[in-house]
Backbone:
DNA sequence: CATGGCGAGAAACGAACTAC
DNA sequence: GTAGTTCGTTTCTCGCCATG
């Protein structure tokens, strides 16, 4: 199959809306600890509310701010107070280590918000759930690794094993050492990724039938902001010249934004391309035509191509 | 060898902007 | 004025590396 044919195949097999690989539905294991911590934070804030009204309490106040600071530094981000920091154009991380800023934020908080002592577990879990997207960092790579492992690929850690195996894959690693670090990849395969991206590494190196695929996986639900740059990044990967017949790059995109991009289609020739996603689509097609050795895949395409 | 600190990488949402 | 599009931002998690 050519890269354009597999691209067409991907268009016919969109992503499912619910993809279990990106679910985080279990309750937080440390929920009870979070609740205790939030209670302690609230106690401190309530105390401060009282003593700041009085005079000659500066020493005591200072001590309590110190205690509050320590509580906040070690994971106080699920408290209402931390949420309030976001409302004040900052984050609790930036404020918790700075006495002056912490005091300013606290005074504002006491003035603008009420403090109630109860900490319902469901509320804390809700704040955690709201931030579930931040946990998906490695999910994409894990998903593909799992699919490969379940279908006869071995996972290798060293270049020696990688060379000996027929169907295998390895994770890109960071740092300077390691067979699959940026330096190692350059040494072992003669390709240098991340020249224009401050040494950013890819996700997986897959080997099948003597062909080697350098893959970057992205998971997107919506476009905009950073995501647009992510798309640029994986389109650039399609245009990467590996310099060898059997070396390919693969841009993998899943999540429902993948469907949005694939469903654009090439409209009539006269129609002007108005928005970003249409332009992204056209850029992908153009890049595939110019680089027949490189591939764009979604989940179904990945399975079709590698299994 | 174990532990802690630090930087890189990941995605979602809401506000600002633009075009009609 | 409204609908649609683009831009800007936040913080967690993981792995590397230094330190004890």
Residues:
């Amino acid at each position: 199959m050519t890269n354009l044919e597999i691209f067409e195949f991907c268009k016919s097999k969109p992503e499912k809306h619910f993809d279990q690989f990106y679910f985080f539905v279990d309750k937080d294991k440390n929920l009870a600890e979070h609740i205790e911590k939030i209670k302690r934070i609230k106690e401190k804030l309530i105390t401060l509310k009282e003593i700041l009204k009085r005079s000659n309490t500066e020493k005591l106040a200072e001590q309590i701010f110190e205690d509050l600071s320590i509580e906040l530094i070690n994971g106080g981000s699920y408290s209402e107070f931390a949420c309030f920091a976001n409302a004040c154009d900052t984050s609790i991380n930036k404020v918790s280590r700075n006495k002056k800023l912490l005091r300013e934020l606290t005074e504002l908080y006491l003035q603008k918000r009420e403090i109630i002592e109860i900490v319902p577990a469901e509320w804390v879990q809700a704040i955690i759930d709201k931030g579930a997207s931040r946990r998906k960092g490695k999910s994409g790579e894990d998903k593909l690794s799992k699919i490969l492992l379940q279908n006869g690929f071995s996972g290798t850690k060293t270049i020696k094993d990688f060379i000996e195996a027929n169907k295998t894959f390895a994770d890109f690693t960071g740092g300077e050492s390691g067979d699959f670090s940026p330096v190692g990849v350059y040494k072992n395969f003669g390709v240098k990724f991340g020249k224009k991206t401050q040494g950013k590494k890819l996700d997986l190196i897959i080997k099948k039938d003597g062909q080697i695929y350098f893959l970057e996986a992205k998971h997107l639900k919506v476009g905009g902001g950073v995501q647009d740059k992510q798309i640029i990044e994986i389109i650039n990967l399609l245009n990467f010249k590996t310099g060898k017949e059997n070396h390919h790059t693969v841009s993998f995109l899943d999540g429902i934004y993948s469907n949005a991009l694939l469903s654009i289609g090439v409209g009539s020739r006269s129609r002007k391309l108005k928005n970003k996603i249409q332009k992204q689509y056209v850029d992908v097609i153009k890049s595939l035509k110019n680089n027949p050795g490189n591939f764009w895949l979604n989940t179904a395409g990945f399975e079709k191509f590698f299994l």
About this structure: Chain A is about 50% helix and 10% strand. The beta strands of chain A are 154-155, 168-171, 204-208, 211-219, 247-254, 295-297. Residues 128 and 134 of chain A are 10 Å apart (CA to CA).
